[in-house]
Amino acid sequence: MKKVLIDVDTGIDDALALSYAVHSPELEILGVTTTFGNITVEEATRNTLQILELLGASQIPVFPGASRPLFRELKEKAKLFHGENGLGNIQLPPPRTAARREKASVYMIEQARLHPGEVTIITVGSLTNLATAIMAEPEMTKLVKRVIIMGGAVTVPGNRTPVAEANICADPEAADLVFRSGIPITVVGLDVTMQTLLTREHLETWRELGTDVSRSFAEMCQFYMDAYAKVGNVRGCGLHDPLAVGVAIDPSFVRTSPMYIAVDTSGGLSDARTIADRRSQPEFPPNADVCLEVDHAKFLAHFLQRVF
Ligand code: BDR
Ligand code: CA
Q1: What's this model's pTM, rounded to 2 decimal places?
Q2: Would you say residue 244 has pLDDT above 90?
Q3: Which residue, 141, 161, 179, 284, could crosslink 260 as a Cys pair with Cβ 3.0–4.6 Å?
Q4: Where are the coiled-coil regions (predicted)?
Q5: Ligand 1, closest atom to CA 124?
Q6: How big is the CA angle at 71 (ends 67 and 74), to the nearest 5 degrees?
Q7: Domains assigned to the chain
């Protein structure tokens, strides 16, 4: 089993990613850490606890993380895509379990020290918790096996600005720090996640399945899909965060290329862009393995089989 920590801003696709991970026997989930992004960190923590309870997985410990970016003001929530509450405004019972007292970044360090070279961190929200952990314990870059980052857009437009993807945009300085740190990184960006779409037909199947879980997820994803349609993506909604979990389970879903990635922190029009050196003779040594191709049919089949 692969030891993983999942860092989330739960969020509809984060919820799907959690369900996929919980139902994947290849993964040993050491804990879920929370951050801001789609919603505030308090809401992310509450949503994470609610989703884990819905999944019957409330034994997985949840650690609240950063409430704001390293150096900037907190940006607007992503209400259009995730609703006011982050879960497409569906109502789930208040969580019965509480989050742990330990901070997310502290728990990351503790687990990395406890299992040197064994822990994969899957980040599907802002990179603030990981950056905080690296600042507090620079050895994290050697202790952690790999970081799988859902974030960035190398060959395609952004989704928060014309060039920036939401998770990088949430805290560009944190992302910059992580990419400069030397920690082994796999980037699962919009380049591949916008090729793995969930469609309305899938939601019909979930409704027909008729369980509490499948119905709740169908309702959430209906909201997500309607939001995608409003911005012109009528074919379906991107399985961003689930693909990052998928890559942790089976790296053969994607093809990666080693590349140098820098994060623009200029504050200008290209702020939060992930800039890749894709020249035939790059000037800078690679700092990440970037997913540029995905076997979307293989991934989608696996995800759909596992998610409930
Ligand atoms: C990413 O941003 C968030 O809105 C999603 O949950 C996902 O992690 C996609 O850009
Ligand atoms: Ca997310």
Answers
A1: 0.98
A2: yes
A3: 284
A4: none
A5: 8
A6: 45
A7: 2-306 (3.90.245.10)
